[in-house]
TrEMBL record, chains A, B:
It is found in: Cytoplasm. Belongs to the GrpE family. The gene is grpE. Homodimer. The keyword Cell cycle does not apply. It comes from Streptococcus minor. Participates actively in the response to hyperosmotic and heat shock by preventing the aggregation of stress-denatured proteins, in association with DnaK and GrpE. It is the nucleotide exchange factor for DnaK and may function as a thermosensor. Unfolded proteins bind initially to DnaJ; upon interaction with the DnaJ-bound protein, DnaK hydrolyzes its bound ATP, resulting in the formation of a stable complex. GrpE releases ADP from DnaK; ATP binding to DnaK triggers the release of the substrate protein, thus completing the reaction cycle. This is Protein GrpE. InterPro entries: GrpE, GrpE_CC, GrpE_head.
Length: 171, 171
């Protein structure tokens, strides 16, 4: 707004000056100075806006990096957890060994949980979280999309899937 | 700011115009325009420099977050690794159980290694990486600062210590 007013003002002055001598160079200089001022004002405003954008994006990125920081290590730790769970299925473990394995398993689950990693729920088949490795015919007792068996647990980090659960599903 | 300048400008014009011929007001206006231009140029340059600083800091921070992203989960996984190692010391494990535990241990070590986590070396005592939980008198065969025994392994993430090694040291 202020810029527009300024320009009108300058135009009026210019019209009058044409008649006289000497003044034209100063007017031009003034025009140029005003243009320069306007130019830098625009540059400043753009730089300022860009600065705020950069700051906002950096904040968002930082938050996302923080939230998902454990993603890579968590993914790599999951097979160890699978193996511990498989070990617990083995017949004929002594009580000490079983207790030991359970302890390691629990502490690993706890470590993952504290970082936001949790098992994917397996109530009803959800293609976003489950991978059907086998299907069984649905019947009255087993409606379509109910899950018959979990071959391998799935995990997510907060709302982000780390790996799907491998399931047998009725359909 | 720009509004204030405008007001001053107007006032000056009114005062001066009465006395003289037409040049002074233009000069003043030019001066003000030049000042305004200079002012915005400075603001622009500062904003630009600040923008680069913000960008640089955001980059540094992003790199650091990336580099140490696994720190928290890694720290929490270490006790599981300790327990697996302790389990392997137990007498009378069947060959299958031993193999199973070793497999889990190795996959956990590998997962940590891929994320930059490694054991702290234990050649000579270094207070930056070791915690002396016990000392033994040094002698000809065991010079001061050599390590007699490692109670618990230490780990670092890149160059950053996750936890010190617990050692017995000669001194």
């Amino acid at each position: 707004m202020s810029e527009e007013v300024k320009n009108e003002e300058v135009l009026e002055e210019v019209e009058i000056v044409d008649e006289t001598v000497e003044e034209t160079p100063e007017k031009t200089e003034l025009d140029l100075a005003n243009e320069r001022a306007e130019d830098f004002e625009n540059k400043y405003l753009r730089a300022h806006a860009e600065m705020q954008n950069i700051q906002r994006r950096a904040n968002e990125e930082r938050q996302s990096l923080q939230r998902y920081r454990s993603q890579d290590l968590a993914k790599k730790v999951l097979p160890s957890l699978d193996n511990l769970e498989r070990a617990l299925q083995v017949e004929g473990l002594t009580e000490d060994v079983r207790k030991g394995i359970e302890m390691v398993q629990e502490s690993l689950v706890q470590a993952l949980k504290e970082e936001g990693v949790e098992e994917v729920p397996v109530e009803n088949f959800d293609p976003n979280f489950h991978m059907a490795v086998q299907t069984l015919p649905a019947d009255d007792d087993h409606p379509a999309d109910s899950i018959a068996q979990v071959f391998q647990k799935g995990y997510k980090l907060h709302e982000r899937l780390l790996r799907p659960a491998m399931v047998v599903v009725y359909n």
